[in-house]
Amino acid sequence: MDLVLEHDGPVTLLTLSRPEKANALSADLVxxxxxxxxEAHRDGTRLLVxxxxxxxxxxxxDFTGFELASEAELLLRLVRIExxxxxxxxxxxxxxxxxxxxNFGAGADLFAACSVRIAAPDxxxxxxxxxxxxxxxxxxxxxxxxxxxxxxxxxxxxxxSAAHALSIGLAHRRAPRER
Length: 179
Known about the structure:
alpha/beta; 2-enoyl-CoA Hydratase, Chain A, domain 1; six-stranded mixed beta sheet; 9 strands; globular
């Protein structure tokens, strides 16, 4: 199962569970996330928590087999990811992302779409979409971190550490180090 769903009263925990693929967002995982967020609208969820199994929160878009996909299939996958980002960002309940490890592109966008964002000390973020001519979530990122920081993050495609993410507002809090 690519997504583990747990309920604890009004709290819904969604764990991306593709550790062998660094929790990359496959078409199936995106559809499962969309269905789960949609169900959370109806089931009394007050807090939706997103986390990732294994060493990373999410490596973003899953490029497995992309060279065999048609342009229409790739466009549909990007549209569905954007719909997921919109559903999380505009949810009528609090959304919390717990990021750790290396997070890229749409995975970093999913983190940024949440209303509360906590990064582990080892978390890093990279948004290389402009190098491909496509960047999801640019407006959300700009609202989170400001236009200048968003421009710097997107144009440079450099890795943003948890400490830097916290300093620019991409993360609300850095998780304490494990002892």
